[in-house]
Amino acid sequence: MAHQADVSIGTVSKYLNTPLRVAPDTKKRIAKAIRDLGYVRNEAARQLRAGASTTLAFVALELNNPFFGDVAEAMERRAAEYGLYLFIVSSNGDPEREGRYIEMFVQQRVYGVILASGMTRERELDTLSTRRIPTVLVDAYGPSDRFSSTSVNDFLGAERAVTHLIEQGCRTIAFVGGEIQIHQITERLRGARAAVAAHSGVALEVLPTSERSVQAGLTVGRQLLSRPRTLWPDGVFAANDSLAMGVMQAISSGSDVRIPEDIAVVGYDDIDFASTAAVPLSTVRRPREVFGRSAVDLVKDQAESSQALPVRSIVIQPELIVRASSKRI
Q1: One digit per residue, pLDDT tens: the chain, 329 residues?
Q2: Is there a contact between 137 and 199 (Cβ–Cβ < 8 Å)?
Q3: Does residue 60 contact residue 116 with C-beta atoms inside 8 Å?
Q4: End-to-end alpha carbon distance in the chain
Q5: CA-to-CA distance for 272 and 67, rounded, in angstroms?
Q6: Smallest Cα–Cα separation from 284: which of 247, 320, 257?
Q7: Which of 33, 55, 259, 260 could form a disulfide with 264 if both were Cys (CB 3.0 to 4.6 A apart)?
Q8: Which parts of the chain fold into alpha helices (H)?
Q9: Coil, helix or strand for 32?
């Protein structure tokens, strides 16, 4: 390439790494040589030699949930401001799958790792800590206090949601959740139980699901409506908005079942579709933009500090958004 552009190897290196130090005419010759030769830069090799990466890895719990897609978009915008590239994967609730991703990130010597799966195991956290890879937990509390985190108070969010249903007159409430072992789901169930325990004459039924999708909510909703009417719940709190929308779809397809008069529904996340559903969905809002920006900022602070920084935990308070799906009074 240097020969093709009639410049030294050192000048080519400057063009690739510090282009502002290269004269405009020289840049044009090198750029033309790159096009003519079909040169593609080996970024992985360059980063390995330099000992620095521009790849920031994000492990989401699931990508079919619009909430995580919105968080990823916020992260990507923030990362771009810092000259970083966001690499997005999903654990899909599988610790083994997440472990393989983390092993790959360690081998690639990524700039940092953001974990939002809620299922990260201690051994993976040990590996990230030992290799000194800047790591931040998002919307999840790990089994260790060694890592900075940004999260929402899921216990409080769920407690507010179920208290709202009780205040609307609900006395038999179904908690429709995903895999109960996921930390976020556990906290929401704990909050729901606390709300029920604080009010006499209220019962809570727990209905776990194998996934957290609209289809899973639709299946649960149909199962509920297949019962004798006397055994229907009069309120549903779903662990995310996708499940809630599936439940509402099942209810709406019933011949004479009304939302919220017969069954009131509250979801969690406040995804974009929540406010525009046929029956606008009451939900607990989690600030997606704040999650994304703050997580990237925490990683950057760690990566660029010459010394170990104290662990920082940013806990965001949830907001109950009341809409037509639950408002009876």
Answers
A1: 566 667 676 776 666 666 667 788 877 777 777 777 666 555 454 454 444 689 999 999 888 888 889 999 999 999 999 999 999 999 887 889 999 999 999 998 999 999 987 778 888 989 998 999 999 998 765 455 788 999 899 999 999 999 999 999 999 999 999 777 788 899 999 999 999 999 999 999 999 998 889 999 999 999 999 999 999 999 999 999 999 999 999 999 866 899 999 999 999 999 989 999 999 999 999 988 998 999 999 999 999 887 778 888 888 899 999 999 999 98
A2: no
A3: yes
A4: 74
A5: 9
A6: 320
A7: 260
A8: 2-5, 9-17, 24-37, 43-50, 66-81, 95-108, 122-130, 154-167, 183-197, 214-225, 241-252, 288-303
A9: helix
Among 17, 1, 66, which Cα is nearest to 240's? 66
Residue linked to tokens 């609209």: 214
| Nearest CA among 138, 141, 142, 140 for reference residue 74 | 138
Coarse DSSP helix, strand, coil percentages of the chain, rounded to the nearest 5 percent: 45, 15, 35
Query: Is the CA virtual torsion 155, 79, 313, 120 positive or negative?
Result: positive
The string of DSSP codes covering 186-204 is: HHHHHHHHHHHHTSTT-EE
Identify the CA nearest to 32 among candidates 13, 6, 63: 6
Burial 117-146 (b: 16+ CB within 10 A, else e): bbbbeeebbebbeeeebbbbbbbbbbeeee
Structure-block tokens of residue 246: 């599936």
Residues near 329 by Cβ (< 8 Å), separated by ≥ 6? 167, 168, 169
Partnered with residue 135 across adjacent β-strands are 113
Quick one: CA dihedral 46, 297, 286, 177, positive or negative? Answer: positive
